[in-house]
Amino acid sequence: MRLIVEDMDLEDISRVIEVDRESYTLPWPASAYRREILHNRNAKYLVLRELAPGALPRARGGLSTEATVRILSQTGQAGR
Prior knowledge:
Layout: E1 2-7, H1 13-23, H2 30-39, E2 46-51, H3 65-75
Antiparallel strand pairs: 1-2
């Protein structure tokens, strides 16, 4: 099993709420997570994801890590 840590986004809230309910007696409501993700620039929320066999981690902007490295290499920005 391959795991990766990524930034939490709005699509993750429903699953995070499930984990919260199993873990805490007073879990946060979905609205609190939405507010934090959208408006609190001082906070960073992370999720752990399982990668499917052969899948590559996704980089910000929707490109795979491999594609991002390839683009940086071609533009001369890799290694900076």
